[in-house]
């Protein structure tokens, strides 16, 4: 069993009971439909007109069943049904969808969202992450997470969450690699595509961001990749 770490607290002067420390309670701005520019990828507001065809091609090849296994939707039968899916998603404010654009090819190769946006308590989640085949296991795949995380903490959010199917081992490894702390399993949390889903919860706090930011930026530096694009040092070696 993980060791319990007591949260910071103070004592109430009247009851003498432990209470949480005082915090700045101002709300945070909501994330907007803006472009987030990186070295390897660019995040831009999802658009059915601009992104449907490229995203369909990136996510419906021979490994499409693996790509969509733990997502809420199954692989789509054809491009028109996928375009309708993208059109519905692009109109939402929460989740707020961003297309991932590969800067070399200038093609859309995935998407991700900021969701469950609680501006009052300054809590937000990253989710609905779909990485197409060209994005997987690339520096851009990591940069997507850095760009969203940086944007959220610069807006003043206190807590950044990652949740995934507890059986999704790659997603859980990714959360840990990106610096999220495991918080537990919510049993029978959802029913997805007719099956039970236990959900693993992870988070990063604003107090932890500076260290994670330095690690991401060091890992993403061009000197950390050889001529074949292979990493010299792993992300966790910078933490």
The CATH homologous superfamily is named Gcn5-related N-acetyltransferase (GNAT)
Shape: globular
- Compute the number of strand runs: 10
Uncertain segments = none
Averaged pLDDT: 94
Give the fraction of residues assigned to helices. 25-40%
Number of structural units classed as domains: 1
Provide an overview of this structure.
With 239 residues, this protein is of the alpha+beta class. The chain has a single domain, classed as Gcn5-related N-acetyltransferase (GNAT) (Aminopeptidase, 3-Layer(aba) Sandwich). Helix content is 29%, strand content 30%. It is built from 6 helices and 10 strands, in the order ββββαααβββαβαββα. The chain has helices at 48-59, 64-68, 79-90, 139-155, 169-177, 206-220, and strands at residues 9-11, 18-20, 36-37, 41-45, 96-102, 107-118, 123-131, 159-165, 181-192, 195-205. The strands form 2 sheets. It has an 8-stranded mixed beta sheet with strand order 3-4-5-6-7-8-10-9, with helices on both faces. Strands 1-2 form a two-stranded antiparallel ribbon. The radius of gyration is 19 Å and the shape is globular. The model has no long low-confidence stretch (mean pLDDT 94).
């Amino acid at each position: 069993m993980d060791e319990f770490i007591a949260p910071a607290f103070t004592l109430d002067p009247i009851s003498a009971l432990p209470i949480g420390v005082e915090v700045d309670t101002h709300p945070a701005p909501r994330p907007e439909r803006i472009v987030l520019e990186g070295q390897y990828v660019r995040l831009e507001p999802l658009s059915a007109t601009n992104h449907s065809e490229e995203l369909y091609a990136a996510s419906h090849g021979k490994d499409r069943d693996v790509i969509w296994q733990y997502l809420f939707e199954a692989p789509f039968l054809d491009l028109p049904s996928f375009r309708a899916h993208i059109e519905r998603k692009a109109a939402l404010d929460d989740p707020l969808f961003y297309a991932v654009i590969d800067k070399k090819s200038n093609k859309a190769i995935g998407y991700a969202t900021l969701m469950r946006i609680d501006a009052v308590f300054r809590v937000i989640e990253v989710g609905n992450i779909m990485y197409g085949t060209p994005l997987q296991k690339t520096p851009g795949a990591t940069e997507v997470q850095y760009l969203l995380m940086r944007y959220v903490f610069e807006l003043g959010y206190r807590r950044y969450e990652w949740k995934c199917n507890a059986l999704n081992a790659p997603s859980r490894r990714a959360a840990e690699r990106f610096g999220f702390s495991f918080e537990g399993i919510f049993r029978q949390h959802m029913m997805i595509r007719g099956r039970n889903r236990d959900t693993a919860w992870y988070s990063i706090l604003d107090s932890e961001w500076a260290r994670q930011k330095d690690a991401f930026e060091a890992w993403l530096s061009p000197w950390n990749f050889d001529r074949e694009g292979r990493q010299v040092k792993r992300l966790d070696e910078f933490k």
